[in-house]
Amino acid sequence: MELSLVVPAYNERENLAPLLAEIDSALTGRSYEVIVVDDGSTDGTLETLKTLRQTHPQLRVIAFERNAGQTAAFAAGFRSARAPIVITLDADLQNDPADIPLLVDTLQRTGATAVAGYRATRRDTPWKRLQSRIANGVRNRLNGEVIRDTGCSLKAFRTDAARALPLFGGMHRFLPTLIKMQGGTVTEVAVGHRPRRHGATKYGMWNRVWRSLIDAFAVRWMQRRALRYRVREEY
Ligand code: UDP
Ligand code: MG
């Protein structure tokens, strides 16, 4: 198997069937699994997934008992991935599965540890884009980073590296920085972005700006305290 797609889904019932159809057409000829992590949905997401499994053998489901957050969903997906490359993407169809081959090809061509998509043209409200711009700027400042768009879920990782990441709540916004902290390399590529058609955003200003500011300090602490040693000799 070549690819494991990890898709966190919290109340995304109406998006799942079109998402799977788009993934299938984007990845024809490739061998892959789609791990949808139902993050404690209450809208019938799990029932929809059970039905979809009957027609999509590549679909795997991890259902949380209750909502645990996007980072927890990614962590569960990384743990369960069976392919050497994992692709993360949102369930809400805002990421375009047609971009996945570009991510995979870039990962292979550059030899990078991870490839992070950045949304060249954001299809969100001006208010949300402003929050993201502030949050990205502050994070980059605090973490000595130049990542264009850490809020874009569409990314490719070498599975071993993804599994080794130190994950805590909120860390899904810092995955490229954590990869670099572990000695890995990250390449960025422009990807598409689409408006959300079904369901609602799960984040408001508290999460996008304030909580992520606190999290940026946590990452800063980790960067400073990261263990860096080289063994000269060992017997
Ligand atoms: N999500 C999740 N658990 C949460 C919040 C969000 O699994 O507690 C999922 C959500 O269903 C979506 C993705 O994470 O697939 C991104 O969330 P959303 O689209 O609401 O974020 P936005 O695009 O508004 O930043
Ligand atoms: Mg979204």
Name of the CATH architecture: Alpha-Beta Complex
The CATH topology assignment is: Spore Coat Polysaccharide Biosynthesis Protein SpsA, Chain A
Distance between the termini: 39 Å
Write out the strand line-up for the largest beta sheet, numbering strands in chain order.
3-2-1-4-6-5-7
Portion in strands? 15-25%
- Main sheet summary: 7 strands, mixed
Domain count: the total is: 1
The number of distinct helices, counting runs of at least 4 residues, comes to 8
The number of strands is 7
Can you put this structure into words, describing what you see?
With 235 residues, this protein is of the alpha/beta class. The chain has a single domain, classed as Spore Coat Polysaccharide Biosynthesis Protein SpsA, Chain A (Alpha-Beta Complex), CATH 3.90.550.10. Helix content is 41%, strand content 17%. It is built from 8 helices and 7 strands. It has a 7-stranded mixed sheet, with helices on both faces. The relative contact order is 0.17. The model has no long low-confidence stretch (mean pLDDT 96). It binds uridine-5'-diphosphate and magnesium ion. Uridine-5'-diphosphate (UDP) binds next to strand 1 and helix 3.
Task: Summarize the helices and strands and which ones pair or pack.
Blueprint: E1 3-9, H1 13-26, E2 32-38, H2 45-53, E3 59-63, H3 70-80, E4 85-88, H4 100-110, E5 114-119, H5 126-143, E6 155-158, H6 159-163, H7 175-181, E7 186-191, H8 205-225
Parallel strand pairs: 1-2, 1-4, 2-3, 5-7
Antiparallel strand pairs: 4-6, 5-6
Helix pairs in contact: 1-2, 5-8
